[in-house]
Amino acid sequence: MKNVILASCAILAASFATGASAQEGTASGAAGGAVTGAIVGGPVGAAVGGIAGAALGTAIDPPPQEVVTYVQEQPVPATPVVVEHQIEVGKPLPETVVLTPVPEHNNYSYAVVNEHRVIVDPQTRTVVQVIQ
């Protein structure tokens, strides 16, 4: 019975793998989290692991190379933006940081913060990638 539930949860989580790359990250995170959760905690662990994995899957999905290249080629603003806390992938930027949209890629914006170029999800302000 446990194997049937485990397989069902993994198939259900993997079935979300359609559409845009953000959805693919969510699905792969959900599937991995569900399988890991099921191994550790059975059916309840699968549900919790799937939710946690989905959240992490979207937070760490790297942007397409053309987005990274575009951000790298943009001039550095004359006025530097400095924030008190360390900029980390998966953490939101403060509301005071102005985001610049990436043309033709509505899912990404960028900013130069603490002398680092940062690619951000504009809807959540979550850092997707820090370019050194």
TrEMBL record:
Keywords: Signal. Pfam families: DUF1236. Residues 1-22 form the signal peptide. This is DUF1236 domain-containing protein. The lineage of its organism: Bacteria, Pseudomonadati, Pseudomonadota, Alphaproteobacteria, Hyphomicrobiales.
